[in-house]
Design goal:
By secondary structure, the protein is α+β, with helices and mostly antiparallel strands. It folds into two domains: 11-65; 73-241, Gcn5-related N-acetyltransferase (GNAT) (Aminopeptidase). The chain is 36% helix and 32% strand. An eight-stranded mixed sheet has the order 4-5-6-7-8-9-11-10, with helices on both faces. A three-stranded antiparallel sheet has the order 1-3-2. The longest helix is centred in the C-terminal third of the chain and has 15 residues, at 176-190. The chain is globular, with a radius of gyration of 19 Å. The two termini are 27 Å apart.
Protein backbone atom coordinates (compact mmCIF):
# COMPACT_ATOMS: atom_id res chain seq x y z
CA UNK A 1 0.00 0.00 0.00
CA UNK A 2 1.02 3.62 -0.49
CA UNK A 3 -0.47 6.77 1.04
CA UNK A 4 -1.37 9.94 -0.80
CA UNK A 5 -3.05 13.21 0.05
CA UNK A 6 -6.85 12.79 -0.04
CA UNK A 7 -8.71 14.37 -2.95
CA UNK A 8 -11.70 16.62 -2.18
CA UNK A 9 -14.77 17.63 -4.17
CA UNK A 10 -15.24 21.00 -2.43
CA UNK A 11 -12.86 23.76 -1.43
CA UNK A 12 -14.10 24.01 2.16
CA UNK A 13 -13.38 20.31 2.75
CA UNK A 14 -9.88 20.72 1.32
CA UNK A 15 -9.21 23.85 3.40
CA UNK A 16 -10.43 22.18 6.59
CA UNK A 17 -8.25 19.12 5.99
CA UNK A 18 -5.18 21.21 5.09
CA UNK A 19 -5.59 23.31 8.25
CA UNK A 20 -5.79 20.22 10.47
CA UNK A 21 -3.05 18.37 8.60
CA UNK A 22 -0.62 21.29 8.88
CA UNK A 23 -1.00 21.30 12.67
CA UNK A 24 -1.28 17.57 13.27
CA UNK A 25 -4.37 17.99 15.45
CA UNK A 26 -6.76 20.80 16.34
CA UNK A 27 -9.67 21.55 18.65
CA UNK A 28 -12.90 23.42 17.95
CA UNK A 29 -11.39 26.50 19.63
CA UNK A 30 -8.42 26.33 17.24
CA UNK A 31 -10.81 26.49 14.31
CA UNK A 32 -12.72 29.44 15.78
CA UNK A 33 -9.50 31.37 16.35
CA UNK A 34 -8.34 30.66 12.80
CA UNK A 35 -11.39 32.38 11.23
CA UNK A 36 -11.81 29.21 9.16
CA UNK A 37 -15.06 28.44 10.97
CA UNK A 38 -17.61 30.90 9.57
CA UNK A 39 -20.60 28.54 9.44
CA UNK A 40 -20.87 26.20 12.47
CA UNK A 41 -23.56 24.05 10.85
CA UNK A 42 -21.46 23.55 7.73
CA UNK A 43 -18.46 22.74 9.92
CA UNK A 44 -20.35 20.00 11.73
CA UNK A 45 -21.52 18.58 8.41
CA UNK A 46 -17.99 18.60 6.98
CA UNK A 47 -16.50 16.95 10.04
CA UNK A 48 -19.21 14.27 10.09
CA UNK A 49 -18.68 13.44 6.40
CA UNK A 50 -14.88 13.43 6.66
CA UNK A 51 -14.96 11.24 9.78
CA UNK A 52 -17.36 8.87 8.04
CA UNK A 53 -15.08 8.71 5.00
CA UNK A 54 -12.08 7.85 7.15
CA UNK A 55 -10.31 11.14 6.38
CA UNK A 56 -10.46 12.57 9.91
CA UNK A 57 -10.42 11.02 13.37
CA UNK A 58 -11.78 12.62 16.55
CA UNK A 59 -10.78 11.86 20.13
CA UNK A 60 -12.23 13.87 23.03
CA UNK A 61 -12.94 16.85 20.80
CA UNK A 62 -9.54 16.80 19.08
CA UNK A 63 -9.48 16.31 15.31
CA UNK A 64 -6.56 14.79 13.43
CA UNK A 65 -6.00 13.28 9.95
CA UNK A 66 -6.75 9.56 9.78
CA UNK A 67 -3.65 7.46 9.23
CA UNK A 68 -5.05 5.65 6.20
CA UNK A 69 -6.73 8.62 4.48
CA UNK A 70 -6.35 8.30 0.72
CA UNK A 71 -4.73 4.87 0.87
CA UNK A 72 -4.30 3.00 -2.40
CA UNK A 73 -4.06 -0.76 -2.82
CA UNK A 74 -2.24 -2.30 -5.75
CA UNK A 75 -2.94 -5.86 -6.88
CA UNK A 76 -1.27 -7.77 -9.69
CA UNK A 77 -3.89 -9.92 -11.38
CA UNK A 78 -3.04 -12.04 -14.43
CA UNK A 79 -0.10 -9.78 -15.17
CA UNK A 80 -2.19 -6.61 -14.90
CA UNK A 81 -1.74 -3.96 -12.20
CA UNK A 82 -5.09 -3.08 -10.62
CA UNK A 83 -5.41 -0.17 -8.20
CA UNK A 84 -8.19 -0.01 -5.60
CA UNK A 85 -8.66 3.42 -4.02
CA UNK A 86 -11.21 5.98 -2.83
CA UNK A 87 -12.99 7.67 -5.73
CA UNK A 88 -12.16 11.23 -6.76
CA UNK A 89 -14.25 13.89 -8.44
CA UNK A 90 -12.55 13.22 -11.76
CA UNK A 91 -13.63 9.56 -11.59
CA UNK A 92 -17.32 10.38 -12.03
CA UNK A 93 -17.37 9.91 -15.81
CA UNK A 94 -15.55 6.60 -15.48
CA UNK A 95 -17.90 5.39 -12.74
CA UNK A 96 -20.87 6.38 -14.88
CA UNK A 97 -19.47 4.43 -17.82
CA UNK A 98 -19.22 1.25 -15.75
CA UNK A 99 -22.67 1.79 -14.22
CA UNK A 100 -24.27 2.33 -17.60
CA UNK A 101 -22.80 -0.87 -19.00
CA UNK A 102 -24.00 -2.80 -15.95
CA UNK A 103 -27.44 -1.14 -16.16
CA UNK A 104 -27.78 -2.03 -19.85
CA UNK A 105 -27.51 -5.70 -18.90
CA UNK A 106 -30.80 -5.24 -16.98
CA UNK A 107 -29.53 -7.41 -14.15
CA UNK A 108 -28.81 -4.67 -11.61
CA UNK A 109 -31.62 -2.16 -11.20
CA UNK A 110 -29.93 -0.21 -8.39
CA UNK A 111 -27.05 0.69 -10.73
CA UNK A 112 -29.52 2.46 -13.01
CA UNK A 113 -30.76 4.60 -10.12
CA UNK A 114 -27.27 5.52 -8.90
CA UNK A 115 -26.17 6.36 -12.44
CA UNK A 116 -29.16 8.68 -12.82
CA UNK A 117 -28.20 10.48 -9.60
CA UNK A 118 -24.60 10.96 -10.71
CA UNK A 119 -25.72 12.16 -14.15
CA UNK A 120 -27.50 15.16 -12.62
CA UNK A 121 -26.05 18.63 -12.17
CA UNK A 122 -22.78 19.22 -10.31
CA UNK A 123 -24.42 20.38 -7.07
CA UNK A 124 -26.37 17.14 -6.83
CA UNK A 125 -23.25 15.16 -7.69
CA UNK A 126 -21.39 16.75 -4.78
CA UNK A 127 -24.30 15.97 -2.46
CA UNK A 128 -24.45 12.39 -3.73
CA UNK A 129 -20.74 11.92 -3.09
CA UNK A 130 -21.26 13.11 0.47
CA UNK A 131 -24.11 10.62 0.94
CA UNK A 132 -22.08 7.68 -0.36
CA UNK A 133 -18.54 6.38 0.00
CA UNK A 134 -17.20 5.33 -3.40
CA UNK A 135 -14.20 3.14 -4.16
CA UNK A 136 -12.92 2.45 -7.66
CA UNK A 137 -10.76 -0.12 -9.39
CA UNK A 138 -8.51 1.35 -12.06
CA UNK A 139 -6.22 -0.09 -14.72
CA UNK A 140 -3.85 2.39 -16.35
CA UNK A 141 -5.83 5.16 -14.59
CA UNK A 142 -9.09 4.06 -16.25
CA UNK A 143 -12.03 3.10 -14.02
CA UNK A 144 -13.03 -0.53 -14.57
CA UNK A 145 -15.19 -1.04 -11.48
CA UNK A 146 -16.81 0.66 -8.51
CA UNK A 147 -18.14 -0.18 -5.09
CA UNK A 148 -20.10 2.23 -2.92
CA UNK A 149 -21.78 2.27 0.47
CA UNK A 150 -24.67 4.67 0.89
CA UNK A 151 -25.14 6.36 4.25
CA UNK A 152 -28.79 6.53 5.39
CA UNK A 153 -30.13 9.94 6.38
CA UNK A 154 -32.45 8.43 8.99
CA UNK A 155 -30.87 7.97 12.43
CA UNK A 156 -32.70 4.70 13.08
CA UNK A 157 -31.05 3.22 9.98
CA UNK A 158 -27.61 4.76 10.50
CA UNK A 159 -26.10 1.36 11.30
CA UNK A 160 -26.98 0.03 7.84
CA UNK A 161 -25.73 0.88 4.37
CA UNK A 162 -26.71 -0.11 0.86
CA UNK A 163 -23.72 -1.52 -1.00
CA UNK A 164 -23.55 -1.28 -4.79
CA UNK A 165 -20.89 -2.92 -6.91
CA UNK A 166 -20.07 -3.36 -10.58
CA UNK A 167 -17.16 -4.27 -12.86
CA UNK A 168 -16.85 -3.93 -16.63
CA UNK A 169 -17.74 -7.23 -18.28
CA UNK A 170 -14.30 -7.77 -19.81
CA UNK A 171 -12.66 -7.59 -16.37
CA UNK A 172 -14.98 -9.92 -14.49
CA UNK A 173 -13.79 -13.24 -13.11
CA UNK A 174 -10.44 -11.77 -12.01
CA UNK A 175 -11.29 -11.05 -8.35
CA UNK A 176 -11.48 -7.30 -9.00
CA UNK A 177 -15.02 -7.25 -7.61
CA UNK A 178 -13.86 -9.16 -4.54
CA UNK A 179 -11.04 -6.70 -3.86
CA UNK A 180 -13.38 -3.75 -4.34
CA UNK A 181 -16.00 -5.16 -2.00
CA UNK A 182 -13.47 -6.07 0.69
CA UNK A 183 -12.11 -2.51 0.61
CA UNK A 184 -15.62 -1.07 0.97
CA UNK A 185 -16.55 -3.53 3.72
CA UNK A 186 -13.36 -2.72 5.63
CA UNK A 187 -14.25 0.97 5.49
CA UNK A 188 -17.88 0.30 6.47
CA UNK A 189 -16.82 -1.77 9.47
CA UNK A 190 -14.43 0.94 10.70
CA UNK A 191 -17.12 3.57 10.11
CA UNK A 192 -19.44 1.76 12.52
CA UNK A 193 -21.83 0.05 10.13
CA UNK A 194 -23.31 -3.19 11.44
CA UNK A 195 -25.00 -4.33 8.26
CA UNK A 196 -24.80 -3.79 4.51
CA UNK A 197 -27.45 -4.88 2.06
CA UNK A 198 -28.04 -5.24 -1.66
CA UNK A 199 -31.14 -6.03 -3.70
CA UNK A 200 -30.93 -7.55 -7.18
CA UNK A 201 -33.27 -9.23 -9.68
CA UNK A 202 -33.59 -12.99 -9.29
CA UNK A 203 -32.49 -13.32 -12.92
CA UNK A 204 -28.99 -12.13 -11.93
CA UNK A 205 -27.79 -15.60 -10.94
CA UNK A 206 -24.11 -14.62 -11.22
CA UNK A 207 -24.59 -11.68 -8.86
CA UNK A 208 -26.42 -13.79 -6.29
CA UNK A 209 -23.74 -16.48 -6.46
CA UNK A 210 -20.99 -13.87 -6.06
CA UNK A 211 -22.56 -12.47 -2.89
CA UNK A 212 -23.23 -15.93 -1.47
CA UNK A 213 -19.57 -16.82 -2.02
CA UNK A 214 -18.73 -13.81 0.16
CA UNK A 215 -21.01 -14.96 3.01
CA UNK A 216 -24.04 -12.82 2.18
CA UNK A 217 -27.45 -14.25 3.06
CA UNK A 218 -30.85 -13.86 1.46
CA UNK A 219 -33.15 -12.04 3.89
CA UNK A 220 -36.30 -11.89 1.78
CA UNK A 221 -37.71 -12.19 -1.71
CA UNK A 222 -40.22 -9.71 -3.10
CA UNK A 223 -42.30 -11.46 -5.71
CA UNK A 224 -42.77 -9.81 -9.11
CA UNK A 225 -41.05 -6.65 -7.86
CA UNK A 226 -39.45 -5.76 -11.20
CA UNK A 227 -40.77 -5.75 -14.72
CA UNK A 228 -37.94 -6.41 -17.15
CA UNK A 229 -38.57 -6.72 -20.89
CA UNK A 230 -42.26 -7.24 -20.18
CA UNK A 231 -41.76 -10.06 -17.65
CA UNK A 232 -42.22 -9.87 -13.89
CA UNK A 233 -39.06 -10.69 -11.94
CA UNK A 234 -38.55 -11.30 -8.22
CA UNK A 235 -36.23 -9.11 -6.15
CA UNK A 236 -33.70 -10.95 -3.97
CA UNK A 237 -32.85 -8.92 -0.86
CA UNK A 238 -29.44 -9.91 0.50
CA UNK A 239 -27.37 -8.69 3.44
CA UNK A 240 -24.11 -9.16 5.31
CA UNK A 241 -23.65 -8.59 9.04
CA UNK A 242 -20.56 -6.63 10.13
CA UNK A 243 -18.91 -6.08 13.51
CA UNK A 244 -20.41 -9.22 15.02
Amino acid sequence: MSSERPMFETRDRRELYDFIDSRGEVTYDDLVESDLLTDPDRYRQLVAVMKRDGILEEDDGTLRPALDAGTEETHHIDGTEVTIRPARQEDISGILGVMRQVAEEKRYIVAEDVAEQLSSDSALVRQDLEDQRFFVATINDEVVGWCAVETPRIDKLAHTGELTLGVLEEYRGRDIGSHLMQRALSWASKAGFHKVYNSIPATNAAGIEFLEEHDWNTEAIRRDHYRIDGAFVDEVMMALQLND
